[in-house]
Write a structure and sequence with these properties.
Layout: H1 2-26, E1 38-42, H2 48-56, E2 61-64, H3 67-74, H4 77-82, E3 87-90, H5 99-103, E4 108-114, H6 117-131, E5 138-143, H7 160-170, E6 174-180, H8 195-211, E7 219-221, H9 228-234, E8 238-241, H10 243-246, H11 280-292
Parallel strand pairs: 1-2, 1-8, 2-3, 3-4, 4-5, 5-6, 6-7
Length: 294
């Protein structure tokens, strides 16, 4: 019975987030590229039934942080049968020894976390083998460590242009789609626009100026459960939202694994975040601040 209740809540949550995405896009300055934001539902630790329910509500893009979990879910018979048009995003740290496993995932749509030229080369050569006679290129984003934190993966910002240039000129099996960042957690929007998002915007400008790319062809993946509306308002084209759609993360040996017939838990950490908890009040405050800026 709890699964039915949770599925109903997932459906409502997807519709709610999609409406918030639409409203945030309407508040963007007209000077920004008019690219409709893509919602990536981050489903890590969640069962296939929840993914299927979100899919039934029209959601197509789903994100996973861990290669093994993505392999298991993308190959799950229920998902393969019920979600034929699903698009998987890999949004976690990718180690070179997991590249082949990742690229074998059915319906892999976008790898958002290329953080070095060497990793790009490995993914490029592996994709050439995987695709065989097909000429389809694999979409990738370059991950930037905009906050400079040592516990965050991603390129130093100053290496952005050279790495993108390497992918475009040397990795013929890859299609460069844009830039991605996680950024510092818990930024207070009363202090002004999020500096990590501003950093990603400026790096996109550099890439476009240096390589003569149209701005609208370089996507920005930034913004998670607590700040996706602000991210969209300043230019995000891809937001990664998990906990406010699927509820708190469920990890092995955790009390959160106990079946719970009640509605979805209150918003928890952003998709890539597991160490620091953001309270429901903080999430509401962030939403209020984002809306009240305009």
């Amino acid at each position: 019975m709890w699964r039915v209740a949770m599925s109903e809540e997932v459906g409502k949550a997807v519709q709610s987030v999609l409406e918030r995405v639409k409203q945030a896009a309407a508040r963007r300055p007209k000077t920004l590229p008019a690219v409709p934001p893509r919602l990536v539902a981050v489903s890590k630790t969640k069962p296939p039934e929840m993914i299927v329910e979100a899919y039934r509500q029209g959601q197509r893009n789903f994100g996973e942080n861990y290669v093994n979990e993505l392999v298991d879910k993308a190959s799950d018979p229920v998902i393969l049968e019920s979600c034929p048009e699903i698009k998987w995003h890999f949004i976690g740290h990718l180690q070179k020894n997991n590249v082949n496993k990742l690229l074998g995932v059915p319906n892999l749509f976008l790898v958002e976390t290329i953080d070095s030229a060497k990793l790009a080369d490995r993914v490029n050569s592996s994709w050439q083998r995987v695709r065989g006679a097909s000429s389809q290129r694999l979409k990738v984003m370059v991950q930037i460590n905009t906050s400079g934190e040592q516990n965050k993966h991603g390129l130093p910002p100053e290496d952005t242009v050279s790495t993108v240039k390497h992918i475009v000129s040397q990795c013929s099996a890859l299609h460069f789609s844009g830039l991605m960042t996680i950024g510092r957690y818990g930024y207070d929007l009363t202090l002004g626009p999020n500096p990590d998002f501003q950093m990603l915007l400026s790096r996109r400008q550099e890439v476009c100026d240096s390589l003569k790319f149209p701005m609208e062809e370089v996507e920005l993946s930034m913004g998670m459960s607590t700040d996706f509306e602000h991210a969209i308002e300043v230019g995000a084209t891809n937001v990664r939202v998990g906990s406010i759609i699927f509820g708190n993360r469920e990890y092995p040996n955790s009390a959160l694994n106990t079946p719970n017939p009640s509605p979805l838990p209150s918003p928890a950490p952003s998709p890539e975040k597991t160490s620091k908890t953001v309270s429901e009040e903080a999430a509401k405050k962030m939403h209020h601040l984002t809306v009240s800026e305009h």
